[in-house]
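This part of the workshop introduces the protein records we will be handling. Each record describes a single protein and holds just a pair of labelled lines. Instead of coordinates, the fold is spelled out as a row of discrete tokens. To make this concrete, we reproduce a full record directly below:
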Amino acid sequence: MNKGGRPRIEFDKDTWKQIEGMCEIHCTGEEIAGVLNIDYDTLNARIKDEFDFGFSDYYKRHQGKGKASLRRLQWEAAETGNTTMLVWLGKNVLDQTDKQEVNATVKNTTVLDNMLSQLEE
């Protein structure tokens, strides 16, 4: 019996794979919904129906694979000699920095002390 309203939108296996892939490349829920030509609330509702948790938890479960792929590509770029990537990974992975601390010690202040004494007189 038809209760009225729009027919329920169901996702097939390929659609779930597409959603997972978009999460991996860090698309937002709104962007994913836009690609699927549905409302974000519909996307969130289908995820809740299928997995018993919302979009944000679904997203967290799938974004890691995308991060790992990006890290692998960065590492490969660094290994081929990409100096920009080598510097970036050094700063972000090895806590390296461009900052240089300079400590100076003045050993003989006699001349300076004499000049200050003369100014005070």
Summary: The two ends are 106 Å apart (CA to CA).
